[in-house]
Amino acid sequence: TLADTGLRVGELRHLTWDDVDMDRNVLHIRPKEGWQPKTGDQRSIPMTQRVRALLLALPRRCKWVFTAAPSQKYPKGDHQFSDRHLLAALKRVLKKLKLTGHVHTFRHAFISHALTQGTPEAIVRQWVGHVDAEVIKLYTHIADVSSQAAMQRLAGANNQELQHGGHLDGAKNDGKDSAQTQHNHGRDKNDHVAK
Fold it and tell me: What is the model's pTM?
């Protein structure tokens, strides 16, 4: 859920079933008694199919969407998870996978991925809430680097095609199947009909 929404861990911990709007397919981030989102920002985040399916499969044991496992103190398992326990569980998984990271890494990855996929900065900000301008510059720099790399891959593919005697549009040298030839042929037909 963190990876698909960019939520802060505190926002995930304080997500209630009243915040899950299946009709509009959004998660509402809003203040609760004794807690409010960082910087107080309220917002709604669209759910991906993966998040929606996960939430539909979860049992509704209490008002909280994500709860800790049952324990001696809370045998029903209907209490909020702690940040410390969540991090410890993540660290165990990361160790097995020989990876590093933190819970907040999911938020960073979500923002970076959204920007590199061309999502406008204004929409990303709307989804994730307040993001410091300097931090957004870092993410947009990552998107710029990704964009530059994509252009270089495209240029390399085009050069390789030309070196093998092809055309940029993928046509053979005789030009029979080229998009430009087909376009010109269609235009010539239209001109003839117009005359």
Answer: 0.69
In one letter, which amino acid is 96? K
35: three-class secondary structure by DSSP: strand
Look at the chain and count its residues: 195
Cα–Cα distance measured from residue 48 to residue 135, given in angstroms and rounded to the nearest whole number: 25
pLDDT in tens, 19-37: 999 999 999 999 999 999 9
User: What DSSP designation does 33 have?
Assistant: T
For helices 105-116 and 133-163, the axis angle rounded to 10 degrees is 50
Q: Tokens 């203040």 map to which residue? A: 31
CA distance 148 to 138: 15
Outline where 22-104 has alpha helix (H): 49-57, 83-97
Phi and psi dihedrals of 9, rounded to 5? -65, -35
